[in-house]
Amino acid sequence: MTALSTLSADTVLILGGGLMGLAIAHQLARRDLPVCVISRRRGEAAGFVAAGMLAPHAEGLSGDQLRFGQLSLERVPSWVAQIEADSGLPCGLRSTGIVVPFTTREDRDQYPTASFGSALNRRQLEREIPGIATTWQAGLLFEQDGQIDNRRQLMRSLESACVERGVQFLEGVEVLELFQSEAQRIGTRIRDAEGTETEHNGAAAVLCSGAWSSQLLPQLPIFPVKGQMLSLQAPRGALKRVIFGPGTYLVPREDGLVVVGATSEREAGFAEGLTPQGQSTLKQGIASLLPEASGWPPMERWWGFRPCTPDEGPLLGKGPFPGLWLACGHHRNGVLMAAATAEAIADCVSLGRTRGDLETLLPCFRWQRFDSGVS
Ligand SMILES: Cc1cc2nc3c(=O)[nH]c(=O)nc-3n(C[C@H](O)[C@H](O)[C@H](O)COP(=O)(O)OP(=O)(O)OC[C@H]3O[C@@H](n4cnc5c(N)ncnc54)[C@H](O)[C@@H]3O)c2cc1C
User: Which atom of ligand 1 is nearest to the CA of 329?
Assistant: First the structure.
């Protein structure tokens, strides 16, 4: 295992080995920078929890978040191709499209992203989602939205791609403190898996500790939003599109597994575990969308914490100290936004700025926007 003391002074420290940490580490390594990922607990990352929808339109995003989500969605195929080429492992990207059902045509036409989708009447909706409950009389089909199998494939493939590119890993290691050290460097106090504490000074670090990021920098307005999930084993091909209903969605994987999500529990804090109420909410959601799915056997149940901010948009770019970069707070769209985030932050670290179409957008996600009232 990598020891902190063996790292060179120019090693970029990635603080958090979840989805953002891995995606950024991979892009930095592709730019030939020395990188070390410090990860407290692999399994708690929301990257292993998410449904993996790539859904800027189905989610009804607007403004800067919609634009950033769209730019990231455009990048996903080439980003995935890089990861798969480096790792030799598939990421599970599927272009299934996503259907959003509505009870009335008026609701459908007022959806924030309606102009990006194809309007469906009841007959067309049934053709896209055979067996959808009769409550739903209209729909929007977003062919351009998709999904990726983050839980079983993308995260593993990213880890492997990082290893192949020479990224070093410190697993079971917790960052206890983050500060600006004397020589304009980023100081970190770290406890390893055996309980030994050390300090490390580096030239650059990226904070990507997900829902826990404000524990290291209390000035960041990030808080956890718990989500409970489950999966069902459907007959293969029984569901061809993702259904994105209000409060519940069904995401069909290639092998017939259907991922069902998700509760959104702001009051739960970091309370771990499943709850009967959360699971029964999902059960009711399944029945209200696709009655026949109530008969598909449950395979697995799990939970995790979305890193949320007051406007539900990420915190990206320069952090409070020179050399510290932020990539956190992606709330419910981190899988979607990972491709653009990784490119933008890798550019920031390696060049000091972003490039191209991300350059004008990145300042919209600066962490100080809440202080100035700009959201
Ligand atoms: C139920 C649910 C469903 C979701 N569905 C979708 C979806 O369909 N589409 C989509 O785009 N997004 C979805 N998301 C959101 C997405 O999963 C997150 O936005 C994304 O994973 C955030 O990535 P991250 O790297 O910031 O955080 P994480 O993936 O949570 O990783 C953070 C890591 O930091 C580590 N860490 C924390 N503190 C420390 C410390 N002090 N020292 C060392 N390491 C530390 C943790 O151990 C963890 O491994 C969903 C999330 C949830 C919870």
Answer: 26
- Edge-to-edge strands, sheet with 118-121: 118-121, 138-142, 98-102, 242-244, 249-252, 257-261, 223-233, 298-308
Q: 8: burial class by Cβ within 10 Å (0-12, 13-18, 19+)?
A: exposed
Give the contacts of 268 (CB within 8 A, at least 6 positions apart): 224, 226
**Helices vs strands, H then E, count in the chain:** 8, 20
- Model confidence over 296-349: pLDDT tens digits? 999 999 999 999 999 999 999 999 999 999 999 999 999 999 999 999 999 999
| Ligand 1: lining residues by beta carbon, under 6 Å | 15-21, 38-41, 44-47, 49-53, 174-175, 208-212, 216, 227, 229, 261-262, 304-307, 328, 330-336
Q: For the domain 94-146+223-307, what is the CATH code?
A: 3.30.9.10
Report pLDDT for 182. Answer: 75
Q: Is 194 exposed, middle or buried (0-12, 13-18, 19+ CB in 10 A)?
A: exposed
The full set of domain ranges for the chain reads 4-59+153-222+311-370, 94-146+223-307
Ligand 1 atom closest to 331 (CA): 19
Ligand 1: distance of its center to the CA of 211 in Å?
A: 7
Q: Closest Cα to atom 49, ligand 1: which residue? A: 45
